[in-house]
Amino acid sequence: MKTKRFLSLLLAVVMSFSMAVPVFAAKPQAFPQKHISLSSGGSVGPFAVTPGSGKYLQVWFRNFSGAEVTVMLMNESNTIVLKAMTVKKNSGAQNKLVYPLLDPNLPAKYYIRFQAEGGAQVVGDVAAAQYDNLTARPGEGEPAPLVRMPVRLFENGFVDGRTGTYETNKFTTTPGNGRYIDVWYYNDTDDDVTINLYRTDKTGPVSSVKASHYNSYRVIWYTGSNTEAVTYYIRVEGKNHAPVSGCLLVTQDLYLYDDPLIKVGSGSHRTSDFTVTPGNGKYIKVWYENKADHDVNVFLRRENDLGYVDYITVKANGGTNVMWCPVSDTEPVSYHVQFASKNSYPLLGHLRVTEEAFKTN
User: Fold this and answer.
1) What is the pTM assigned to this prediction?
2) DSSP of 104-142, one letter per residue?
């Protein structure tokens, strides 16, 4: 089985760029400093945060590996990346990430996962601690932007449909957790499959897509309601009734499109398409944080349109910029975002697209 490939789907991450030596004496450590030697893809944890001990969770890593290491803060089931950072190879290079706790008054558990470039062994020191106010201590940097992790609606790491069809149990959205249904699927067979999303209050699938053989597939399927609970289920169908096998994850999300890790070796990149829905807002808001060391142009393009709707230039080394574009009130329209950097330098950053009722500064 090749289901381990599904882990790459879950790397929906936010990169942290600031560097500092941790000062963990101020608060009890959620995960005391520990020297590790792990295979790439390995984890430490789970460890728990303490209600009332701080609003922010900070993870620190010093890298003694022979390769660059990506350090990921994971959720309690070790399946969803909440935030991540890269740490340069050798010589004790270090970095930190800061994650704002969704509710500091509730207990929660986390893992820390490590991925080394080229699959190298991960060697280094790791620690995690809670803090109340990061800006109160010079050198610790500003609090990171709030990261709202998607809410899991359904998950199955081993989809098995030997008769050619697999159907999930029903799952229901929660008002306030987001209007978007986000589906991830890894097809672990030799044949293409069709994935259908159904609402129990409607006849026929509300969205459908094909996933090619031995391939991962992510698509924001459907714009639902953020004010009422709606029940759904998914059916996976094999080509010509061939058996189906793979991995499936369904989440409820606040954002029309969110890719916390745009990391491309060349200076050009195109996102998958996303569709705006009449009534959800009058504007598309495109926000980009540029982690690369060179400026990047970000273009919004309409589906099948050779031109572009608008573009922004985002400054290097942590610069951010926002683009507002009016959308149709009467018909759904699909768009995508395209990036271009000077001299085709690599891309590194975080892209988020939302539908907004009003244009704000």
Assistant:
1) 0.49
2) TTS-EEEEEEEEEGGGPPEEEEEEEEEES-GGGSTTS-P
